[in-house]
Write a structure and sequence with these properties.
About 75% of the residues lie in helices and about 5% in strands. It contains twelve helices and four strands. A two-stranded antiparallel ribbon has the order 1-4. It has a two-stranded antiparallel ribbon with strand order 2-3.
Length: about 325
């Protein structure tokens, strides 16, 4: 089988199949989603940092989630927007390998942060009195460092292993960004080791994280049911709503995509592409919205910010009007 030196080759990206004629129009909502993700997560970080009352474990983990969402959005942006906006489908191998490293790293990082947030909710509900002594600042920093080391360390071998493979003349990827299994399928060599490595990473990260999140919520439910007061039970569960929404936003498209790849051979390539976009693009956009709506402290702080901005704008306008009248 013919192949060529992979150091001088490139791959070709694919948008949504069957919708090539409207790719330029699809770039508009994509741009809007990236801007919304940048604005929403940056605002969350700024609010948590500037408000002393939010310097608590829950909001520290929320800041980690916001940073991860920003990284996930930035990882898909370099190839997706040029493809839909300018029609640029070709991507160099080195850029492709770097992109898949960051996409998978931030994806696992998001899963890990969601797991730590589930642990935070478990401690807050099960052990409310010693909550502050259990989740101290050094321990939160240690958890953040563990999340970073785990996510980066597990994915360093991926681009190195793919770099060593020869690639066939078929260089067409299935998505508008590079993913490990997608690039691996284009190789003209035995990829069993790469496939086993990818399966190990998925099972040891996303698989383990999802099981542990379910376990933590089982323990949370057990604790909540032991509370005598119905009002207290609802109050405890209400603190988990935002996190549950974030978990569903992250895992539901991923599970659907996995099911389609394994059992839904009938599914159209377009539906697979849409599910992939939902998995990588929607959580960074909606997580800030969910936490702003459901978290009273963040919502009040943002309202004060917008109220202050509005007051400043009114003062400037009144000053200009008064100045014109005096003239």
């Amino acid at each position: 089988m013919s192949h060529f030196n992979h150091t001088s080759t490139s791959f070709f990206l694919t948008g949504l199949p069957g919708l090539e004629a409207v790719h330029s129009w699809l770039s508009i909502p994509l741009w809007a989603m990236y801007v919304a993700s940048l604005a929403g997560n940056s605002l969350i970080l700024w609010v948590v940092r500037s408000e002393p009352a939010l310097h608590q474990p829950m909001y520290c983990f929320l800041s980690m989630l916001a940073v991860t969402d920003l990284g996930l959005s930035a990882s898909t942006l370099p190839t997706m927007l040029p493809l839909y906006t300018l029609g640029l489908r070709e991507v160099a191998v080195d850029l492709c390998l770097a992109q898949l490293f960051f996409i998978h790293t931030f994806s696992v990082m998001e899963s890990s942060v969601l797991l730590t947030m589930a642990f935070d909710r478990f401690v807050a509900i099960s052990k409310p009195l010693p909550y502050g002594t259990i989740l101290t600042s050094p321990r939160i920093a240690s958890l953040g460092l563990a999340v970073l080391v785990r996510s980066v360390g597990l994915h360093i071998p991926a681009p190195i292993m793919l770099k060593k493979l020869p690639y066939c003349q078929n260089r067409l990827l299935s998505h508008s960004y590079c993913l490990h299994p997608d690039v691996m399928k284009l190789a003209c060599a035995d990829t069993h080791v790469n496939s086993a490595y990818g399966l190990f990473v998925v099972l040891s990260t996303l698989g383990v994280d999802s099981v542990l999140i379910i376990l933590f919520y089982g323990l949370i439910l057990q604790t909540v049911l032991s509370i005598a007061s119905k009002a207290e039970r609802l109050k405890a569960l209400n603190t988990c709503v935002s996190h549950i929404c974030s978990v569903l936003l992250f895992y539901t498209p991923m599970i659907g995509l996995s099911m389609i790849h394994r059992f839904g051979k009938w599914a159209s390539p377009c539906s697979r592409g849409v599910l992939s976009y939902l998995h990588f693009l929607i959580p960074p956009v909606l997580n800030p919205v969910v936490y702003t709506i459901k978290t009273k402290q963040i919502r009040l702080r943002m309202l004060r910010i917008f109220w202050s901005c509005g007051a400043v704008l009114r003062d400037i306008r009144d000053h200009e009007i008064f100045g014109r009248k005096r003239k």
